[in-house]
Amino acid sequence: MSSEDAALSSRAAAVMPWRDGLYGHMSTALLPAGYPQFYERGQGGRVWDVNGNSYIDLMCSWGTIVLGHHHTAVEAAVANQQALGDCLNGPGRPMVELAELLTETIGHADWAMFAKNGTDATTICTMVARAATGRRYILVARGAYHGSAPWCTPRLDGTIAEDRGRIERYDFNDLATVQAAVDRCGGDVAGIMVSPFKHDAGHDQALATPEFASGLRALCDRLGAALILDEVRGGFRLNFGGSWDELGVDADLSAWGKAIANGYPLSVVLGADALRDAASSIFVTGSYWYSSVAMAAALATLNVLREQDGVRLMRAAGQRLREGLQAHAAAHGLEILQTGPPQLPYMTFAGDPAKERLRLFTQEALRNGLWLHPGHNWFLSVAHGEREIEGALAAAGKAFASVAEGSEGARAVSPLGDGSEQRV
Ligand code: PMP
Predict the structure, then answer these.
(1) Do the beta carbons of residue 170 and residue 181 sit within 8 Å?
(2) Residue 122 in contact with ligand 1 by CB distance below 6 A
(3) CB of 119 shorter than 6 A to ligand 1
(4) How many angstroms separate the alpha carbon of residue 146 from the centre of ligand 1?
């Protein structure tokens, strides 16, 4: 039996690098057997692969989908702008309106600079911090992901030592290690970059302690360095007004992407007035950075999120999911650990350091129509209402049953029905 996914994978492998033609985080080489590589469409809280299978989508396209796939208000704004033009000789009205909305919404922000990917935004933050201070070092947490440019890509192939020559590491939630990193830099610190919570791939997550957040703020003030909050993953899910708003800690610079435009390509750097001159001094740009469609999408996305109090809805749905997972796991005698904010959950099994149980669990969830990733946090969207959460829990219940049975061997069969089993 042939499968569209297998056919596309082999065509991609012929004309693109990597096993199935997919590089970076999207490669199925990172996933257990049976995950599709190619998708046909998305609607609300579900996605469909090219073989016609549908899944409750708790990956939300790696966080970009915050209102649900193909949201009516966003698609209407996109269609309207598309009819006018996307890439013109300069930006359109939506850019100014969006910068106004963002600076009104995010406490520390007095100005906005738009780009396309999260990596663009984090990289711009390093440049603004260095331009503002005339110093060289950027501090980042060990294991944190800030993008795929040579200064921060997690894999060193293709980079040279000088690319990350002025990057120092500290441990998240550990101020003593931040101070030690500062000392190693001999005072030459331009900025400290931090994620609002610890979401390192493949690890249990951790919320920032209030002492850590306010300690970083105080340290940056003492040093005259920029506090840079990487909101690319957590932004507009943890808190509508900024992820550390509730902790009362303002960044000097913040990098945003993913959820901001419900899947349309847009990222933004937000900054405080004190850094406006530095931001004006650097040269950064891109052919598509001023295109209007994604900005129109962002305006619609943020307005709907605010009107519906989307963060509260996602948190409540995530909490229901968390309680349901706990109940199902306990019913099967399985011990699980759920970490991070409920709207960006991650789950591991106790005593499963190689993640064998977790991989089997996600594989079985997939077979039962629920898309989860074993090595990356999951994402809730506003489209995950009661029906989707109940559906997700029903699938998870079956997956827990399989884990309890420990029938891994029998489960390595691809749901593609084409005999295309892959063992990873
Ligand atoms: N920072 C964080 C915290 C991220 O999660 C990501 C993407 N996963 C990035 C930066 C880079 O964003 P992009 O992939 O859009 O370049």
Answers:
(1) yes
(2) yes
(3) yes
(4) 6
In DSSP notation, 38-52 reads -EEEEEBTEEEETTS
**Which mutation among 114, 198, 258, 268 tests ligand 1's pocket best, with the greatest number of atoms within 8 A of CB?**
258
Pairwise CA distance, residues 136 & 138, whole Å: 7
pLDDT tens digits, residue range 138-152?
A: 999 999 999 999 999
Query: What is the value of pTM for the model shown?
Result: 0.95
For the segment 113-170, what is each residue's pLDDT rounded down to a tens digit? 999 999 999 999 999 999 999 999 999 999 999 999 999 999 999 999 999 999 999 9
- How many angstroms is it from 63 CA to the middle of ligand 1? 10
Cβ burial, residue 149 (10 Å; 0-12/13-18/19+): middle
Q: Is the pLDDT of residue 199 over 80?
A: yes
Q: Measured in angstroms, how far is the CA atom of residue 195 from the centroid of ligand 1? A: 11
Confidence of residue 2 (pLDDT cuts 50, 70, 90): low
* Distance of CA 417 from the midpoint of ligand 1 (Å): 34
Q: Which H or E run includes 360? A: helix 356-367
